[in-house]
Specification:
This protein is α/β, with parallel strands linked by helices and 207 residues long. The protein is built from seven helices and six strands. It folds into two domains: 147 residues, Ribosomal protein L4/L1 (Ribosomal Protein L4, Chain: A); 51 residues, no CATH class. Strands 2-1-3-6-4-5 form a six-stranded mixed β-sheet. α5 links the parallel β4 and β5.
């Protein structure tokens, strides 16, 4: 099988770069991608929502009124849920939403998401040398000429500040680094741009 290729944007001449077949031509398993995306989305949830039950509300140590003869319903404490300031029935409590996914499955899901972009023709590489200084206009022109669609994700190294500054102000474009790239972001993006310097780092995470 021929090695997958991706266009190189920003160079003096248009050309395509061969990609690692084991990573960018991997088998796409939707159920595995869904499992990893679900785990990543759950990790973003804080799980700090909480309320007080009647046992946690202060006050109400004695009966608010006597049991009989008042014409009102019997009550044992003003901490009950029917009173203003009382506790909540079955209150929410802090919880952990995290879902465990083993590393092998996570790497396979990342390979599948990357391979899907290659098959769709929505993955391109960036020539870092073409951005001598930050320019949002240059980034937009490059993205438009390629025919990219938003939302888009741009992956650069921490040292490639000029590329990051060039793309970060574009609408519906996320700039990230390889160590923080999530499968959910790759699936969410309609276009994926990866700098040449960031490519081996992504391959290292996916292999």
């Amino acid at each position: 099988m021929a090695a997958p290729k991706a266009p190189l944007l920003g160079g003096k001449a248009a050309k395509e770069v061969s990609l690692e077949a084991s990573i960018f031509s991997a088998e796409i398993k939707p159920h595995l991608v869904h499992e990893v995306v679900r785990a990543e989305m759950n990790d973003r949830r804080q799980g700090t929502r909480a309320a007080k039950s009647r046992g946690l509300v202060s006050g109400g140590r004695s009966k608010p009124w006597r049991q009989k003869g008042t014409g009102r319903a019997r009550a044992g404490t003003i901490r009950a849920a029917q009173f203003t300031g009382g506790g909540v029935v079955f209150p929410p409590s802090p919880r952990d939403f995290s879902v465990k996914v083993n590393k092998k499955a996570a790497r396979a899901a990342l390979r599948a998401a990357l391979s899907d972009h290659v098959q769709a023709g929505s993955l391109a590489l960036l020539d870092g040398a073409s951005f001598e200084k930050p320019s949002t206009k240059a980034a937009l022109d490059l993205f438009t000429k390629w025919g990219g669609e938003t939302p888009a994700v741009v992956v650069v190294t921490e040292d490639e500040i000029t590329i990051a500054k060039s793309f970060r102000n574009l609408d519906r474009v996320i700039v990230t680094i390889p160590s923080e790239l999530e499968v959910a972001e790759v699936v969410w993006a309609r276009s994926l741009l990866v700098s040449q310097a960031a490519l081996p780092l992504i391959e290292g995470r996916a292999s």
